[in-house]
Amino acid sequence: MKVKLGLVYGGKSAEHQVSLQTALAVIKALDANKFDIHPIYITEEGQWIRGKQLTEPPQSDRQLRLQTGETEFAPAMLNQQLFPAKQTEGQESLDVIFPLLHGPNGEDGTIQGMLEILNVPYVGNGVLASAAGMDKVIMKNLFAQANLAQAKYVSFIRSEWESDRESAYIKVEQSLGYPCFVKPANLGSSVGINKAKDRETLIQAFEEAFEFDRKIIVEEAVEGREIEIGVIGNDEPICSVVGEIAPKKEFYDYKAKYEDGDTELIIPADVTEAEYEKIKEMAIQAFKAIDGAGLVRADFFLKKDGTALINEVNTMPGFTPFSMFPLLWKHSGVTYDQLIEKLVQLGLERHEQKQQIKHTF
Q: Which domains are seen in the chain, by residue range?
C-alpha cells in the first residue's frame, strides 16, 4: 500500500523560500508508485493551507504557494484536517508528516512539539534535538558538555547589548579578536551572518544579526577546510562520506548556497582515513549529544594539523539541487529517492517505539 505522506513546507520564517525549494526537490524525487503526496503550505503570515493530493510534480516552487481558496485551517485543527476520523473526498487521513521547514517556527521544535501532542508520526528530529540544533548557543553548550572540540565563542542577548554596547564589543575583542563571525543564534542558511574584521564591521554585524533574533553568537574565525558529513538513523546512526565546501567567496553565504551556486562542493573530500574516522566519531557523538533522530548534517573545520573542530549540526538540512546532504548520501550509494524513503521509515519506526511507552502506573 502507498504511504500517504504529508509535506509541510513554507513557514513563518526568513528561510521560507529555502523551504519551498526543498519541498519542490523532494516532491520531484518521490516515487508516485510508493507515495501519495499531500502538500501542506504555511504562508509567511502563518496561515496553514492544505492542498489537494498531487497528481504530478509542480514545475516551479511558485506553484507550491497554495492560495487561500484551498482548505485553510488553524494548527489546532490538525487532527481534523490531516487525520480525520471520517474520510471525505480530497481529505484522506495521512500516514506520516514530513516537515520540510527551515528556521524558527519549524526546525526549532515548535511543530515537532505540536505533532507530539497530537501523537502524529513525523520524519526527523524530535522537540529537544530540533530546539537545541536551532539555537547555536545551546547546541555549542551541549557540545562542550560532551567534550567535543570546537571554536571559541561568546553570546549576547539584545537587551544586554542595547544597555551596554561598548562592553559587548570589548568582550568580543578580548575573547576572540578579529576576524570573527557574528550570527543570529536561531537561524540557518547563512541568513544574517557577517564576518567582522574590525570594530566598524563588528558594529554593523551586531546590528544586522539582531534584526533576525534576540540572541546572537560570535565565533572566532578558524583557519581550516569546511568539511561536512551526513548522519542518518535513530538509536544506531550511520555516516556518509565527507564533503568539502570550497566557496569562491569569503564564506559560504546564502547566495552561494541557494542562488548562484558559486561554490565548489568536493565529494568525497580529500581526507586521510584517520581524519575521516575522527570526523565520523565526532558527528555521531554530536548526534547523540542532542538526542538526534532521523537525520543531521554535521559541519566541521579541519585544520592543517589534522585537528577537527565541530562547528554545528543542522537538524533539517536542505534538499535543494545545490545541497550537500543528499549529495553526500548519493556518493555513499544512497540515491535521493532511497534517502527520502529511509527517512520516512525511520520516522515511522520512532513513532512506533514511542507507542510502547507506558503513561500510567
A: 3-122 (3.40.50.20), 152-220 (3.30.1490.20), 223-353 (3.30.470.20)
